Each structure stands twice: as C-alpha cells, then as structure tokens.
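Q: Is it fine to ask for two folds in a single conversation?
A: Yes, each is treated on its own. Send the first.
Q: Here.
A: Result:
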Amino acid sequence: MQGRVTFTATVVSGLLLALGIGVMFLAVTAHPVGAAEVALAVAMILGFFASLAAVAWVVRYAVKRALRPVRTMRDELGTISDHRNIRRVTVPSTHDDVADLARCVNVALDRIEQLVERQRAFAAEASHELRSPLTGLRTRLELGLEHPEEEDWPETARAVLDDADRMQQIIADLLTMAKLEAGVLGTRGPIDLGELVRAETARRRQRVPIEIETDEGVMVSGARTHLIRVLTNLLDNADRHARTWIRVAVGTDGRDALLMVADDGPGIPPEERERVFQRFQRLDEGRRCEPGGTGLGLAISRDIAKAHGGELFVGDSPGGARLVLRLPLIGAQDPASSAPPVSTTR
C-alpha cells in the first residue's frame, strides 16, 4: 500500500485531582487518524480550558458579590472619624452570616456611643464639682485681700481648708473609680463579713445608735479595703439621713451573702432607686447629700460590688431606706438551709 502512516496523539479528556492540582493526561496511540479526529481533540482541549475559565469567572463573581456588604461595612466604618460621628452600618436584607455580622457591629457601636456619652457627661460633672470649691476658695481669698483689716483670717483659713479637703476627696474618688474601671481591685482573700461589720462600726462615731445583727461564718472573697469602703459609704449615707436609728444585718440568702444597712430617715422613692447610684446625683427631696459629700459614694460602692461579682441595690422598706449588698459566698450552701435576714425584693 502506498502512502505514509502518520502517528498522532489522540487526547483522552480527564482530570486527575491529586494534591489539589488538576493534571491533564494524554494517551498516545500508534494508528493513523483523520483530520476530523484531530479537530475533535483540539475542540475538546479548547472546550475544557474555556469551561475552566468560565467556572473561575463565576466563582470570582459570586465571591465578590457575597463580600460586597462586607466592603460596604468597611467603608462605612472608615467614615467614623471621632466620637461625634458614630454612624451605624447598613444591615443587608439577606438572612445570612454577613447580616448577623452587621447587626453585631451596630450593637458594638451602640455600646461605644453610650460609653462615650457617659464619659463626656462624667467629665462635665466632675469639672463642675471641682469648680465649685475652687470658686468658693478663690472668692473667700479675694474678699479677704480686699479688706484685710476686717477679715477673720483664722476662719478664712478653715474655710479654705474645707474647700481643699472637698477637692482632695473628689480627686481621690475619681482615682478610685478609674482603678475600678481598669480592673485594679487589689489583693483578694477570704473575709468574714460579720467580723468586718463589727470591727468597722466599733471605730465609728455615729450621730445615732447602730443596731447590729450578724450571722457567724458568712465568708466572701474580696479586697478588704474596698469592702470597708462600701460599708463606710453605706453607713455615712445612713448617718446623714437617719432620725433615731441605723440597723446593720449580715446573713445569707441561698448561695449569696447579704449585708444590709437600713435607717429610719425619709427613705428613697421607688422611681429614684437607680438614680441614687449615678455619679454626682442627689435626690430632690429629703435625702440630699451633705455639703461635704462628693456625690460619688454610692456609685463607687456599686462599682466595687460589681467588681466582686455581686450587686448593690435599694431594697423595699416600710420606712426609711434599706441598701443591700449581695456577694457570692465562699463554699455556696444549699439554698434551702438558710433564711435571709433581709428582704431582697427590689
């Protein structure tokens, strides 16, 4: 037979997935093929690569479309330049993880904005509280210098010292609050609440008598100096407003220790029970802070309670005020085996 035998490569289309790499393999045959088979092989090769390119483009488009809300959130967060421009991000209409992420971001922004507002208000209130004694001090000295021969200088010196003491107390309270917010609590250890109450009340000089009722072995874990600060603040508050008596009780309520300080003063209206724990807050009637107070005592006391894993709140009382400190017990006992000495109803 005349003619020439031509050896060509017939492509066997296939894709081997090995180590994540697509491998094209060729099978070589030794029989003559026609032009149609060659064209078919070329078409299969070109079709494969065209399909691969199409799949890559579709995947890229789908990923880009899915991440478009994330890029939008990134751009919107980038527009937040300071605390006065805390905008919320757009929540996609889809019900997927991206929408959940947007909602979480907005919740975080809400908290940040509230924190910034509280800090701004606190700074304004602190500056006002410091400005008041400074103004009084300056006025007293200026009047004395204008009429030095008529001024009672010993009395002026006492007034100046009183104003200086007030400023010093405000600054000390501000530093305490800053440490509590930073988580600086100090050395913690086991504390017998009953023993702490008896020791601290014994060294105080009260305007009215204090009745003490404590259970034995009410143990909590805490920083002693801070818990003394809470007790002192509660006793100071009661002493300012009590008419004839103050009552201090220590006991347990299930898995918690309770320290209650009550008085027979004008009491705290239910609608004011949260406001008394705000910084620099004073009630409009009855229970006003004395002139030497800083307005931070109860706010600091609640922060200390929270730092110890507890709470401080105003309990119900038929007359006067009842403030209750609740702290976790060391070695929690069976709730059914203890009876609380105070009502914790809020």
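Q: Second one now.
A: Result:
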Amino acid sequence: MKTKTCVIQLVCALSVLFFALTPAVFGVEITPDISDPFYSPGTDPVGLAYDGTYLWNADADD
C-alpha cells in the first residue's frame, strides 16, 4: 500500500512539473500582448475567423 501511495505522489509531482514547464518548452505565451491591432474594413463587424493562413473579417453590411 505504501508503494502505491509513493507512485501516486510521484505521478502527481511529475504532472505538475510537466504542466509548469509546458509553456516554456513549446513557446506558448501565458499572457499574450496585442502585437498588431487593426480596424475593421467594414462599418458593422460581426466576427473573425482564422483558417490557419488568413484572418477573415465578417461584416453585417456585406
């Protein structure tokens, strides 16, 4: 029973360590800053979509 408790504690400690280091390893920003703001080209913006290449703007007037 004591071995099982030690294994569970070890797994928990490694999980915490993994999730603490994941942003540093993969370069993920926890609090990203606005790097390049832009205004909507239309008069009534209703949404944005990103297809992996382009950022699309949806406008209610179109």
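Q: Anything structural to flag on that second result?
A: Two points. The first strand starts at residue 45 and ends at 50. Residues 2-59 form one domain.
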